[in-house]
Amino acid sequence: MALFKKKEGEKKYYKSTASQREARTAYFFVAPYVLLFFVFIILPVAIAIGLSFTKYDLIGSPQFVGVQNYVYLLTSDEEFMKYILPNTLKYSLIVGPVGYLLSFILAWLLAQIPARARNILAIIIYSPSLTAGVTMAVVWKIIFAGDSSGYINSLLLQLNI
């Protein structure tokens, strides 16, 4: 017995072609991000995890050793247990919570002052993080300028493309 039987005279409802087109367009615009995320984030992390279970010296091919690398790291590597692990734990336990706390306090303090001064202080506080984006926009605009002054366009024009 089918759960969803079509009754006599009932119309089937399909997505309209406009919404299908919108969905395809959305996938088209998201695809480069997903592809780049996979190639530059997921794939290297997966390869690194896979290589962590091998003995690999960059000359020969990797040889599977299982968890032997982790056993060595936790039991025999004095540098790791004496310096690296404690420093990493201290750093993560101090920087994480303190960073969040200071961010919260700064946001709360900003919210307490009048709107005009708040806008000016917000610009002063956030401008260092915005300058990298602006710099990249200027650089890319120069590289991809629409006339022969753009580096990429000039090269393509020379190649008659």
Secondary structure topology:
Elements: H1 17-51, E1 54-55, E2 63-64, H2 68-75, H3 78-112, H4 115-143, H5 151-158
Antiparallel strand pairs: 1-2
Which characteristics define this entry?
161 residues; mainly alpha; two-stranded antiparallel sheet; 5 helices
Describe the structure.
71% of the residues lie in helices and 2% in strands. It is mainly α and 161 residues long. Strand 1 and strand 2 form a beta hairpin.
Distance between the termini: 62 Å
String of helices and strands: HEEHHHH
Low-pLDDT stretches are none
Radius of gyration: 28 Å
Please report the total strand number as a whole number. Answer: 2
Mean pLDDT: 87
Spatial order of the strands forming the largest sheet? 1-2
Number of separate helices? 5
Indicate the percent of residues in helices. Answer: over 70%
Structural class: mainly alpha
Query: What is the molecular shape?
Result: extended
Largest β-sheet summary:
2 strands, antiparallel
| DSSP strand content | under 5%
